[in-house]
Every structure is written in C-alpha cells, then in structure tokens.
Structure of Serine aminopeptidase S33 domain-containing protein:
Amino acid sequence: MLLVLKRRIKMEKFTITKDNGRRIPVLREIPQEADAVVIMVHGFTSCKECATGELLLRRMPAEGIGVMLYDQPGHGTEEAAEEPFRIRNCMDSLAAVEDYVVRNYPGKEIFYFASSYGAYLTGLYICRRPHAGSRLMMRSGAVIMPWLFLGAPGSEPDPASLAELNEKGFLMLGLPDAPQIRVPKGMFEDMSRPENDLLHRFGGYDHGGTEVAMVHGGKDPVIPVRFAREFAEENGIPITVFEGQGHSLNDNPDCPDKVADLAIDFFRG
C-alpha cells in the first residue's frame, strides 16, 4: 500500500487461481492506452516487490507497455510461498499469468522480462509450452542454473549438504545478502534432468517464434559472463554486456535505467 501511495499511480493487487487451486499474488499496472504487456519473471530468492519490478513500473507504462508482476512458487510472503519450488510449478504459474493477460487484454502484445533464475525458467517455458509472448529479455540469465544447485558437471556433491537434504527433504538456500528459500529435494531432481540443461539444449527447441535478447554484467559473480556469451553466441542471441557490473546490474546507479532503455528498444523492435 505504501508503494502505491508513494508512486501515485493506479496499481492493483490481486490473485490469480491456478488449475491446482494454488493462488498467485499479482501486482498489475496496465494503462488503458497500452498496446502491450510485459510479464516480469523474478529471480531466485526475489519476489514481485523487487527493485526490478519497481523499475518496470516506473518506465514501461509511460512507453505504452503495461506491467504484470507476480510471485513464483516458494517465494514472496503470500500464498505463492506455500507452493513447492519446482520447475513444473513455476511454469504453471507463468502460464496462468500469461493466460490471464491473453483473456483480459485481447489484442495486446505480450513480452517477458526475466531475471536470473526467472530467465532460465522462461527459457525452458518458451521451449516447452504453448505461449503468447513474442519477445523475451533475459537479464543476468542463469543459463547454468543446474550448476548452481548441483555443482559443475563431474563435481562431487557436498557430503554435509547431501546428508541434510536426504534427512530433511529440503535445503534452505539463497544468494548473498538475500532471503533463503526452501528448495525441496524434488527441485534438485528437476535440475539433474538433461532436458533442463538450458545452456546446451536451448538451441535444439522450437521457441514458437519468440525473439530473445540478453543483458549481463561483466563482473557477474553468480553467472560468469563467459557462460552468457557462450549461450548468446551458440543461439544467435544479441547480448549487451555492462562492464564492471555485477549480477544485479545496479553497481552504477544509472545502469538500471540503461537496462530499461535496452528492453524498451527491444520490445518495440
């Protein structure tokens, strides 16, 4: 509520019910004159009320692009946090949000702005599911997401973490200076499946005509830029690298707006 009053805009908070009965908390700002809607897919340990969501709300509506923000399963402080953090559940949430936009805003073009794990998930989504989005901006895309959970290919799991996972059925994980998220054993199983290796499988799928662009930090300590460059080169994806920037692309205070500028240019073709 404080966010709405501070920004003095018409932003609505509501929930979308999934086919499994779970509810997705959503924030929406879609001006009547908007001819497109961008769906933000947040990263691991983040939520709809993140700095990137604020950036999109500040910049996109003025460009005629509405904004849909939502919490992924296992994240946020509302109903979504209670749903297990699994790839299928995450895809189902994105599909439900997209379906809501299609049904309630017919004729408006749909874009995705996806960060880190959200970019990984959306990459899988456009490979696997029927979808309506025409363009995907991958911000700090976690193209090596399984490595972050399982370790680099050929590496041995940490014995203590493996013992804890087998005992509890989950691990509490998070990025530095971020909340920890309950990651169930099933998510580690999801990550171990070859079809979820986005780095080496993305080019083998039909993406349904969805165009992709990437933006990455040259000093990203989470997803080293060499992997982002490799992914972009192998798949013919344009990539913009901000040298000196980390994973959040906000080390320089003007960088977030530069990212927004890139996204707007890309969405508008």
Remarks:
- Residues 1-8 have pLDDT under 50 and may be disordered.
- The first helix runs from residue 2 to 7.
- Residues 20 and 96 are 11 Å apart (CA to CA).
- The chain has one domain: 2-154+194-267.
